Amino acid sequence: MKKALILAAGIGKRLGDLTKDIPKCLLPLDSNGSTLIDYSLETLMENNIKEITVVSGFADKKLREYLTDKWKNKVNLNFIFNEKFSEYNNIYSAYLAKDIWDDETVLLNSDIVFHSDILKNLVEAYHGKSLLVIDNSEELVDEDMKVETNANGEIKKISKNLNNKTSFGEYIGITYLKGKERVKFLESLELNVKNKKLNIYYEDALADVLNEVSIYPSSTLGKPWTEVDIKEDYELAKKIAKQLKKVTVL
C-alpha cells in the first residue's frame, strides 16, 4: 500500500450548522485546529502512504486550499472533483476514481477518526489479501454498516440491514482491494453507474460481487475510532482525538 483514496464530496447535512460552509472532514478535533482529515493524513504518513487522491465536492475550494496549504510539502496531493455531490451518493465518487485506483491503493472515508494501530494492522495483515477494516469488538446496532463472514472467514455480505446479532462486525470505512477483488469491484461500480443506480453507496457495489471474490476482515483490535454523521459522533471524535494525543505534523 503506497497510495490512498479519500472520499470527501458529501454535504454532511445531519451535522447542521457545523457543516454549513465546510465539508465535515474539516471539522476541528483539537486545540491546534487539526481536522478529521488531518488525523487521517498523519496516520497515512506514519505508514509511508504519501500519494493521496481526494475526491472533493461540497465546499471544494475550501478543502483544496486547506489541504494544499497544510500538506503540500509532506504528501503528494491530487484532487478529483465530483460535480454531482449534491445529487448522487458516494458510489459516484468511488466511480470517478476508478482509473487511478490500482493494487497499491487504500480507500478511506473522510469522516472517520481512528487509532493509528488500525491502519498499521491493515498494512501488516495484507499478505496478498483484499481486506475491509472491521470492528468486531462492539455490540452492533441498526445504523452500523455490518458484515457477515463464511466458514473460511471471507466477508460475503455487507449492509446496514443485516442481523445485528449474527453479523461479524461493523465496517468502519477503510478498504484495501487488489487483483481480482479490485477489478470486480470497479466493474460493479461501472455497471451500477451505467444503470443509473446513483442513490446507493459504494458498499452496495461491493455487496454485488462478494460471492465472486475473497475479501477478509482486518480487525480494529478494539482500538478507538468513530464515523462522524451527527453531532454526538463529533463529540466522540474529539474525545478520541484527545486519547490519541497525536503530535501534529502541521
Biggest sheet overview: 9 strands, mixed
How much helix, percentage-wise, in residues? 25-40%
**Quaternary structure state of the chains depicted:** single chain
**Total number of beta strands:** 11
What string, H for helix and E for strand, traces the elements in order?
A: EHEHEHEEHEEEEHHEEH
The top-level CATH class is Alpha Beta
How far apart lie the N and C ends? 23 Å
CATH superfamily: Spore Coat Polysaccharide Biosynthesis Protein SpsA, Chain A
Which structural class is indicated by helix and strand composition? alpha/beta
CATH architecture: Alpha-Beta Complex
Question: What does this entry look like structurally?
Answer:
With 250 residues, this protein is of the alpha/beta class. The chain has a single domain (3-244), classed as Spore Coat Polysaccharide Biosynthesis Protein SpsA, Chain A. 30% of the residues lie in helices and 23% in strands. The chain contains seven helices and eleven strands. Strands 1, 2, 3, 4, 6, 7, 8, 9 and 10 form a nine-stranded mixed beta sheet that branches. Strands 5-11 form a two-stranded antiparallel ribbon. Strand 1, helix 1 (36-46) and strand 2 form a beta-alpha-beta unit. The chain starts with a strand and ends in a 6-residue tail after the last helix. The model has no long low-confidence stretch (mean pLDDT 95).
